[in-house]
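Lab channel / #folding
Pinned by the channel admin:
"Please post every new chain as: sequence first, then the structure tokens as a reply. Keep commentary short and put observations after the output so the thread stays searchable."

First post following the new format, from NK:
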Amino acid sequence: MKWQPFMSTFVLNKICELIFSGVRTDKGFKEVHLNTVAKQVFEFYGQEVSATQVYNHLRKWRGRWIQVSKLRDLSGASWDENTCSIVLEAEHYVGHVTDHPRDAEFLSTPIQNCSQMQHIFSFGLATGKHAMGLGEPLGSPMPDFPGTLDIEVLDGLDKPFQNPFDKPFHPVHDRKRKRGGLMEEEINVFCSITKAVTKVATSIRECKPLDVHPDLYGTVMTQSGFSDKAVMAALSHLLDNKAQGVGFVAMADA
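Reply from TO:
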């Protein structure tokens, strides 16, 4: 099927709503959440889509976010927070687009659904049974495997961090040779890795979600007299422009 721009925005907004409700996406997406979004697409647009199609569409947008993240690191590039665009000087822009024409849609122009992509994919690569690796073929979500981690709901920032190196080490007994105790150098390396993992986990827990007015979605979607496409376009614009979004909600409440 061909995803229309307003349908893509709708799907990304629904995933954002799941995240706002406390669902973690750093481990992937549960099939129940993909089915929920697919059902909402049908109810709102009358277009039947499957959980697999939603999953594959999210992989596409994740790929776009990875490309945007790389382009933001271009030499001489600057980031315009107000328009969500990567700005290059005219001469630099022409030279880069000539060599990389596919990057034109992301340079010196507002990036479509940038706020939603940042909120969903900013934690990096998803893992688990619905991991969205760029090298994976399109198709149905990956099946369950032993030890696969499912998505979970946050219990709060005070939830203790489980150090992966606190678990006892179980050697493999079917090997031909058994290693002795760890050398002092190896112990130091393990300790350094443990500290690094702890710092990364702490940083992730301290990350705050993208600042979006909680009433913005409901305020925009309840506006009458406009087509669905126009309403979704307006919502996408207000999500990309925080100040205008806050002002719109305040005006609607007045």
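NK: Residues 125-180 have pLDDT under 50 and may be disordered.
TO: also worth noting, DSSP finds nine helices and two strands in the chain.
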